[in-house]
Design goal:
By secondary structure, the chain is α+β, with helices and mostly antiparallel strands. 13% of the residues lie in helices and 32% in strands. The chain has an eight-stranded antiparallel beta sheet.
Length: 133
Amino acid sequence: MSKYEIYDKPNITKELLNTIKVGDSIKVNTWKRPMKVIAVSENFFIMWKPHFKTWMYSICEKNKRGYERNLIYRPHNGFMADEFVCGHDDHYCKYDYSDADECQKALVDLENGDLEVTTRHGWGIWHLEIKRG
């Protein structure tokens, strides 16, 4: 059985995030259940998991924002300047993130700046677990 590779904040780098591939299972911060990576681009990756009779998704940025936001809501919201950010898109489910083709469209919008990970509800990544798919 494959084990998770575990990384904490000082060791979470863009180079590490660039090694994440479609099919990898990811746990961020205090997550108990992983999400499966469904799409990857140069600066983002999208993950999803079944959740009861629906699904949940998350988009992770591979670049740091360079500013802080909502730190009073940590650890479930908010991010520091030196953290990568993970969260929903700013349009809340503009795409069907359970569909790989829709995720590819979302990645194009993310890369073009037409879509972004929400600042209001994004959270910083300070702990990351990767199970290679």
